[in-house]
Amino acid sequence: MGPFLLVVALSGALYALSTPVERMIYSDELTAPISGEALPLADQVSAATDYVGQEETLVAVRPAPEPGETTRVMYSGTDLGESETRAIFVDPATAEVRGDLTTYGTSGALPVRTWIDQLHRGLHLGDFGRNYSEFAASWMAVVALAGIGLWVARAVTSRSRREALLPRRDVSTRRGTLSWHASGGIVLALGMLFLSATGITWSQHAGTHVTDLRAALGWTTPAVTTQLGEETAVPDEHAGHAGHGGGESGHPSAEPGTADPAMFDHALEMGQAENIDSTNVEILPPTSEDTAWVVQEIQRSYPTMVDSVAIDMGDMEIVDRVDFEDFGLMAKLARWGVDIHMGTMFGLVNQIAVALVALAIAAMVVLGYRMWWQRRPTRGGTARVGKPPARGALQAAPWWGIGLVALVALAIGLFLPMVGFGLIGFLVVDLMVQARRTDRSPH
């Protein structure tokens, strides 16, 4: 599993730093000269629609959050991939079109960050490639917990606490490498478990189990209902995952012509009068005649602001609202966990911290391989591979110990399928190696 962990850690570090890089690369599209008061959204949307053509389907508008930034007017298209939209960047003061780019997910990732994101979660191999990141995320937790157990056992038998906590200066020997790997690993263990848990939530297989578990325990994330006439909110299971591993874009597909540009200003005003306080806002037009407009906050940085409101623009009435402060504790933790994982919660500080943790995990993998290489037999003048652990440890355990290990492995394998498949693969290879050795042994 080492290569999988190495790739996911290095690509994760790259993704963590992709947001500031994105702002530099696409500064022309993301920023505009401060030249006066912002025009009504109707004028900005009309300018974007004139640019793309009346036949394009308008699916969302993100007003400029601050002076000097641009408004995003977003359209769907048959030539776009899953969770992608075509974003037209408009100068809010002049309605000048400053850019035309494909964006991805609710995070609004632009092409460079999207490319890095797809590399991190699937190696650009589609759904099949996502198995690699799920394998790495699932096994990262197992490795971290096993490492904690080994460190505790070493700390108990160590002559001093200093030896267990602080690395040796000498890294040329296996003992020195082990010291660095152990002391660094115990510091990183919490970060590894966090990244593993949050990464698993949007994985293909285990993510479904997490969603089912949250639903069974009542930990779902609420979302406004857009069906006119309905009074209760419905859960949105993928609200926290779109844009980084989730399959939902968060944008409805409205029919052409249903989104009147003049209505965006009215929808925003009504939302601001109700519960929309952030300047980072997205306005979604209705998907059909019997669905409502939605105005939702998209501020994932601290303090989190993701309130939303559904509006019947025909009667000019609020039909539903959801406030983040009313989320359950687990729904809030899920929201915060995903945002910290993606580096959006605390901005650049968060991004640098995640990148450093990811690079440190990669270093732990390299140190692990270094220990393996330093353990190789060197007698006879040949540099063979590292010596494997002694066989038969499980067979020597009592029957109840073997049964307990089997039950735990089965439970984990069912909830985390990639751990289960990995265990089966390791077992098959181990049995094949044993059979080959038995055939070669003298009778």
UniProtKB/TrEMBL annotation:
Q: Which residues cross the membrane?
A: 136-157, 178-202, 352-372, 393-412
Region listing for Disordered, in residue ranges: 236-261
Q: Which domain of life is it from?
A: Bacteria
- Keyword Transmembrane present in the record's keywords: the answer is yes
* Keywords per UniProt: Membrane, Transmembrane, Transmembrane helix
Keyword Membrane carried by entry: yes
Protein name per the record:
Iron-regulated membrane protein
